[in-house]
Amino acid sequence: MNRIEQFWQAYLATCPDNIPPQMSYIAESFGDNPRLADELGRLILQGVKTATCSALWEWQAEGALPPDVGQITIVLDGQDEPLCIIETTEVTIRSYSDVDEQFAFDEGEADRSLKSWREGHWRYFSRVLPKIGKAPALDMPLVCERFQVLYPNVDKGAYDRDPN
Q: In the beta sheet, which residues pair with residue 151?
């Protein structure tokens, strides 16, 4: 059994008996490189990052549907090791220009301001969208997702739901 499956089984062992063992999950890292996966994963573990977004165009290019509320994800670090298990609690589609200050704050990155969110995400989308033949645009549709941590990997560092 690999480490991801072992982590999943450890989580299931903590759940009430009414959680079906065949419950599905996805395992993925956040960001587009190992350094960013480590950084974002650490923010999730600290309880700072409770939201994320991706371009709807990326989902469409992969022929995949965006996440649904209730989706379970094992968040991986930059070395594909499990950091925590999260559950999606909200999914909205909105344009880049319609992302508000609260969502930027909840993403937990940089100084958590809308200005830094826009700058950082514009750089990110400028790196990833050309791979699917797209370029960032103010009206590009984003899949904006909120989540909660269900199960932290206590071996990966402190987890504090309220870091302030």
A: 85
Which CATH code is given to the segment(s) 3-95+141-150?
Answer: 3.10.400.10
- pLDDT tens for the 164 residues of the chain, in order: 799 999 999 998 888 776 665 678 999 999 999 999 999 999 999 999 999 999 999 999 999 999 999 999 999 999 999 999 999 999 999 999 999 999 999 999 999 999 999 999 999 999 999 999 999 999 999 999 999 999 999 876 544 434 43
For Cα atoms 74, 78, 84, give the angle at the middle one, nearest 5 degrees.
Answer: 25
Break the chain into its structural domains and give their ranges.
3-95+141-150
Instruction: Please tell me the pTM assigned to this model.
Output: 0.90
The CA–CA distances, whole Å, from 78 to 35, 101, 122, 136, 148 equal 6, 28, 22, 25, 20
